[in-house]
Structure of Oxidoreductase:
Amino acid sequence: MNQNQPAVPTLTLNNGVELPALGYGVFQTPPEETTDAVTEALRVGYRHIDTAAAYGNERGVGDALKRSDLARGEVFLETKVWISDYGYDTTLHAFDKSAGKLGVETIDLLILHQALPSRFDLTIEAYKALEQLLADGKVRAIGVSNFMPEHLDRLLAETSVVPAVNQVEVHPYFRQPDVLAADAEHGILTQAWSPIGGITFYRDGEHTSTLQDPTIVGIGEAHGKSPAQVMLRWHLQQGRSAIPKSVTPHRIAENFDVLDFELSDDELTAIDALDTGVRGGPEPADITLETFGREIPEA
């Protein structure tokens, strides 16, 4: 890590745990590429790695951590429980599987990957297991992913620990202001997956990607930064955690190089105005055990 490089800002979760605002994600990274990619991310300076049981690459993340000369406490590890492992006892065992693959005793942030509204009874039981893991000191913080405001309301009504994080699709073409507002109201940190709109190829017109959007490109040119760097800066300045992903070394480094410039209020507003209201990923309600259930292997 370049000694002259600004430190990554941290965000304090609602239980006092600190999380590096800029994380490195490994969604869709093949298991055989994960160790090298995470090793490179750690070399560049990332200290927050986001994975999931359903990605099939937790072991690669753990191998990269072992390969590095960083102490365990220097890297914030986040992973997710898949819907097939929802239910109290099954979710407790899901922790064992993930911790075993990651090669750690404690997971910094463990979250439920989907709301699973069709079987929310299982979601509640899974979250109660997370609460127990938190009480036992096996995880330092717990949270959720892809939860809409109504899912949060149902969860909060039946459990006792407010999620520390809600990881959802957020980028300039899909801001989810209702989710951002609900998270803020409850003291939940919003964490952005697909933070630069990498899955956003549905927009009508000439520009099919946020990376080619004239507004974002123009702001980047004004700062001598790439469109991706502008979008990551937008997230950070609005108080979100962002999890960019890439396996290309120069992109891994570029996505980290967002700490030496500031967007103006007008620029932030101009990016906000690009929201189309159109989701790029699957509808949370469409994630069911019948369509997306899959066995998560043992450690």
About this structure: The two ends are 32 Å apart (CA to CA). The chain has a mean pLDDT of 94. The longest strand covers residues 139-145.
